[in-house]
Design brief:
This protein is 68% helix and 2% strand. By secondary structure, it is mainly α. The protein has one domain.
């Protein structure tokens, strides 16, 4: 019986940590200046959506069909490095990696005590933010893809930027927005939100993922811009959700959200 006690204690602590994590994510907002943060988020989201919308329409009208005609043929063997790069922005891979990190932290945390556990749980909160900052805009993107039904480059046999079949639901008509761009830009923003010194590196990462989708003829330029805008807005919204619950972020004057 004495040998079973440590295992019972471990699973009790594990359950308690999981319950606490879930409760923290859905508890009522309590941070001061959350109204300022909400106003700041609204302004940022509207500005991004407006600028992005103008760019998307302009690209559709002027450059989408031209750009895909400039790219190498789909399946060109020499593009293998680009195919490797693009996989770093695949939503399944990114989300499973983050989920695995969360599981690992959850399993190890009950074995730690004191400051060590506190630090590990803080990292867990950061990884939670990264996970949801990617997941939420990715899910939104899937819904938009289904509703919009934009054909991928050369679907239908020609470079047509206005090949739409709303509610089609097939992969050929899942072009707008680019899921890779959503994932890349959401992850880049989220990582930089936690660790500001990574901004340049994460911007390069997001641009590389976006460019790879164009070179591989998986998307039109406007699809990539739409994905980038959606990814950043989604990550902004999730950051606000965490900040007003005092999870990983704090709210300063004028509603500025900063890492804790």
């Amino acid at each position: 019986m004495s040998g079973a006690a440590p295992f019972q204690s471990y699973f009790f602590q594990l359950f308690a940590l999981l319950r606490l994590s879930a409760v923290q994510l859905v508890r009522a907002p309590s941070a001061p200046r959350r109204a300022d943060a909400a106003g700041r988020l609204s302004r940022q989201a509207v500005l991004l959506a407006a600028i992005g919308g103008v760019i998307i329409v302009a690209l559709m009208l002027t450059f989408d069909a031209i750009e895909i005609g400039m790219m190498p043929s789909r399946g060109t063997p020499s593009l293998w490095p680009v195919r490797i790069v693009t996989d770093f922005g695949k939503d399944d891979y990114v989300l499973w990696l983050l989920a695995a990190a969360l599981i690992a932290i959850g399993l190890v945390a009950p074995l730690r005590k004191g400051v060590s556990r506190t630090r590990l749980l803080h990292v867990g909160t950061q990884v939670q933010y990264l996970f949801f900052a990617v997941l939420i805009p990715v899910l939104m993107g899937q819904l938009i893809k289904w509703v919009v039904g934009r054909g991928r480059p050369f679907v239908g046999g020609k470079a047509n930027a206005f090949n739409f079949a709303p509610f089609n639901g097939t992969e050929a008509y899942f072009s707008l927005p680019s899921s890779h761009a959503v994932t890349g830009c959401a992850l880049a923003f989220a990582v930089a939100a936690i660790w500001p010194k990574t901004r340049i590196a994460m911007a390069v990462y997001a641009l590389a993922i976006a460019a790879s989708r164009l070179v591989l003829l998986a998307h039109h330029p406007s699809d990539v811009v739409a994905g980038g805008v959606l990814g950043v807005i989604g990550a902004l919204a999730v950051r606000y959700w965490f900040a007003v619950r005092r999870l990983g972020f704090a709210i300063r004057d004028q509603g500025e959200i900063v890492p804790r």
